[in-house]
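May I ask you to comment on the folded chain given beneath this request?
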Amino acid sequence: MKLKYFKLSEFDAKDANGKKIPGTGGQMRASTLVKCDALRELYGKPLVVASGIRTPERNKQVGGVKNSSHLLGYAVDWKNITDDEMIAFLDAAWAANFRRFGIMATSIHTDDDPTKTTPALWDYSTTPRSRWQSAKVWMAGKLKEI
């Protein structure tokens, strides 16, 4: 699959030592990759993939849930999304048709797993309360638009 803004290798899984497993990014779902490219276009700034496809071992190592969408290639964690940029990022992700968001301290999870409830928004134990509150207000606004 040819992408405008990303290389498949950016979505490669990592082994237990955090080293990329070459070629595994090709296991990402086409639906997800198309949305990632659209997200980048709409956001208008470079994005860095923190995590794409994961092996079960790596998923367990990073504390991922057993049924993580990363295991099936439906999820991407984006790193270095600052508080100042979070709403613009979420707006672009929503416009790209992502409807599932995990708000981390400095990263954001997006996925389009068709087996999971949408829309959805969740936080993590390390998510700052102010960041979480801003994301909840944003999501409430999006739900009113539906």
In short: Residues 51 and 77 are 5 Å apart (CA to CA). The radius of gyration is 14 Å.
